Amino acid sequence: MKVAWSPLADEQVDDAVAYISADNPAAALVWLGRLLDRTKSLGTFPDSGRVVPELQREDIREIIVNPYRVMYRRKDDVVEIAAVRHESREFDESAIAR
């Protein structure tokens, strides 16, 4: 399966890297590397993430790349990364890219 990023998720990753970099640029690069490795593996193992507890929908899952929740959708032959949100933020379904 192909892994694709929504524009919203792409923007959220940029924001996360900038936020982490403000305190520790090296840690931001390490986190980004972990994020890219974990999301790349979703192409091979699309069901490896858990169902998002707040939604209880089989088609929307998430993996944790501490301290961020990476939410994604399975669509035919594509895994779409929909949102990347800090785990301390309140869940908002509308914040997940459609």
Describe what this molecule looks like in 3D:
This protein has helices at 7-23, 25-41; strands spanning 2-5, 50-51, 60-65, 68-75, 78-86. With 98 residues, it is an alpha+beta fold. The chain has a single domain (2-95), classed as YaeB-like fold (2-Layer Sandwich). The protein has a 5-stranded mixed β-sheet with strand order 1-5-4-3-2. Helix 1 (7-23) packs antiparallel against helix 2 (25-41). It is globular. The chain starts with a strand and ends in a 12-residue tail after the last strand. The model has no long low-confidence stretch (mean pLDDT 92).
* Percent in strands: 25-35%
Mean pLDDT: 92
Compressed to H and E, one letter per element, the order equals EHHEEEE
Number of contiguous helices: 2
Distance between the termini: 19 Å
Q: Number of DSSP strands?
A: 5
> Taking strands numbered 1, 2, ... along the chain, how are they ordered across the largest sheet?
1-5-4-3-2
How can the largest sheet be summarized? 5 strands, mixed
